[in-house]
Amino acid sequence: MQILPKSIVPAASDQKELEALRNSIMYSVVERMLHKQEGSITLFYQSLLATHIVEEALAYIDVHFGKDFGLTQVTDEMHCSSTYLNRLLKQHTGHTFYSLLTQKRIERSKQLLMMDSQTVLAISGEVGYTNVHSFIRAFKRSVGITPGQYRDSSMTACR
Question: What pTM was computed for the model?
Fold first, then answer.
């Protein structure tokens, strides 16, 4: 075993300084690790919150699509901005709020049109449109034909 020269062996007061320096370095390393972990936890929490907001917005559309409402009512209910909600919906579903709402309304109106028991005016009101012309325009933009033509083609296909 080799013995260090006295000049290299720290004195008692130097050992305390070295211990303090070592503790300071360890504290700094641990603090950085926690900060990185805290960032990961924050990102995880934000992701969880974003998923929850999207699920809530989709549920709101599912429940209320038959009423006349818009993005403002949903964001007021959810306490977030319309820009934020639309961005989250676009990221998670690939569609904007109004696109999802229209899609839901059109799908339901297709089901009702196949039953042939209600007028186009009644169906438009049932799926949340206050103006039948707006409904017909949205239906044609989405499906490619008018609600009346859709009904006729579905009835012909059923016969």
Answer: 0.72
